[in-house]
Design a protein that fits this description.
mainly alpha; 16 helices; globular
Amino acid sequence: MHRTALTTLALALLLAAPLRADDAPTARQRAEAALTEAIAARTARDYDAALAACARALALDPAWSTLYTERGEIHYQRGMHRQAVADQTKAIELEPGLAIAHARRGRSLGKLNKMKQGEADCTRAIELAPTDPRTWSMRGHVRRWLEDYPGAIKDLDRALELDQTDAVTFDHRGHVRRLMGDREGAIADATRAIELDPKFPIAYLNRARAHHELGAFPAAAEDCDRAIALDPLVWQAHAMRGEIYAKAGDKVAARRHLKAAREIAPPPIWETLDRQIAELGPE
């Protein structure tokens, strides 16, 4: 038989041969594939799909610390802070030197009003990974909640020195700048966050807040509308849009947005929204 024909036959037999057991993906490789799916889904804000992918990964490799810290991040983004703390704690038990788990736990503890404990966790993360911008950014979050605005700005500046592509850190620095009275700086940072992530509803909300405080109501209204289009559950955007409509004399639209905010806002906000709706008068 001709050499070319023999080569072709050998290749065909090789391709047709069954996959050997040692060629099959390992449990860790399949878990890594599921984790990649989970991170992509989280980035797309499809949290149900992200949690489902994490569950598949954990079934394959239940002792892998990274899976717990990533699931904890999904819980954080859904506002489930106790679950987030539990997952980050599990990750730290499995790998005590995992800096990102310390940082994420610290930020979640801050959300649970355990501010000093959260700040300490983030500081530990920085000690473990001083060149990871996420550790600085998360301590900046906690320091903002502590109302240590200069400390927060210092941490967020350091995070952005290390990574100029993080939309969340730009947005958060803008938020702190607004709280310090620098509304133009807040608009600049929120705008940069939007350039980096045009589908980031909270960046539009924070820019709207700065525009609103400057009296630039049309710009604030436009940003509120964009935030609502991206995420109808951003109750703060509905509330601000209602205020702007009320100022413009459009009570029907104002009532519609204030009622939408009332349906999804946390209970401590209900009294304020109820008063604003009542001030519009009878329907």
